[in-house]
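#dry-run=false #mode=assembly
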Amino acid sequence: MTVLTDAEATRLCVVLVRARNPGNIGAVARAMHDFGFPALRVVNEYPVPFEAARSAVDASDVMASAAGYSSLAEATADCTLVVGTTAVGERELRHPLLELPAGARNLRAELAAGRRVALLFGSEKTGLSNHELSFCHWLLTIPMYQHQAIRHPSMNLGQAVAVCLWELVHDRAHDGSASPGAAASSAESIAAPPADSATMERLTALLTEVLQATEYTRRHSANCDPAHIRRLVRRIGADAVDAPVWMGILRQVLWKLGAERK
Amino acid sequence: MTVLTDAEATRLCVVLVRARNPGNIGAVARAMHDFGFPALRVVNEYPVPFEAARSAVDASDVMASAAGYSSLAEATADCTLVVGTTAVGERELRHPLLELPAGARNLRAELAAGRRVALLFGSEKTGLSNHELSFCHWLLTIPMYQHQAIRHPSMNLGQAVAVCLWELVHDRAHDGSASPGAAASSAESIAAPPADSATMERLTALLTEVLQATEYTRRHSANCDPAHIRRLVRRIGADAVDAPVWMGILRQVLWKLGAERK
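#status=ok
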């Protein structure tokens, strides 16, 4: 019934950031099992309570191969697209925001094009922090009912994952609308593949160094918060060909500043 | 975002039959709250553990009006359509079976026609019994991934309800034609508008000046053809907010190089 191949589904990494409740981790693993997504990554500063989650019904295969990370940078290093989920709310967003049906189509096209995608879910209480959002290329939201009395509805973690994964796998061909994946992936094959997250981090570090060396940091400190710089670099959407060019330019700036000082 | 009116959503009764875990009842109520379905009915032969479920986050309005019944006959008495959910399995089915996307369309049409619909979810362990299925006009199933080793996958109760309700409410009208690329750019983004062409030209000119001042042009002449630099800048796709930031950074590089020379 799925419109994704096994290889495509394997390239989607569900990344739980600071999930607190082992029951929720187990529920996420079960939804992944139900819809055929094997790759679970869990980011926590303290040891992840895998043991309790491993007992979740029907989730043992996903939990057995789940990987723990101590930072989001490590957990997304090999991914070329990082997408955060959000309930929106009052957060000031500088990211493109896609609602679920359109966002799922976009994710399917990326997976079909051979990219490894990280889909981030934040902690049950706070969602993703601004620091965590700064790793994201765009954000995905599940549109919800707007209750008059409640300004910012949010979903249960396991339910949010289940709805997102369901939307990714089910067959739009039986749904009266054609699958747009084919056209998209043929268009994308002309462009260079995107830079992975580790490359974007190196680019961010180099830019930060330039900003300091040129005293930009001192003059425009409001722009120089680390999350701000990371988002600025992510928004340039450099591909695997352009990213080294930009790094070369920044290195040259640093070299020249050093040479002038001598 | 919903394609259902409030009156239509109110006519859908989610009926939990022999749900055992108050946490699951709370999770169901939360999903109903999230997607705007107020009518929860719970069928149990013994007193329903509402108290524990009432504490579920964001579910208080649904739980406050939840109704308890001691039989399925009573719980569905005022409904003109009764639909059971099932993970299928080996059960000998005597009912028409609809998979979720088609089934949701069917339910929407019934609700729009003014009918009160009962959507039944069975107990976590056993699903709906044959007796309970006998109340149903047809059955609804969420198609799942077929693991080789596991013959009958089933979903967590709260997740199954969330996926069914999501499928009922979201707007298929926005789901037909757009390509993923179009979706990304037409994203309901709180992102800034794109920079205009004149801005991109100014950015290109500034970058060219930096490449010359840092001797990058001399070292990497192959990258420094004017058309090459323009394309590099266009590909960063800077928006109207980021473009001035990048220009500020480049100006600062030029200023610092000048200052170092003095």
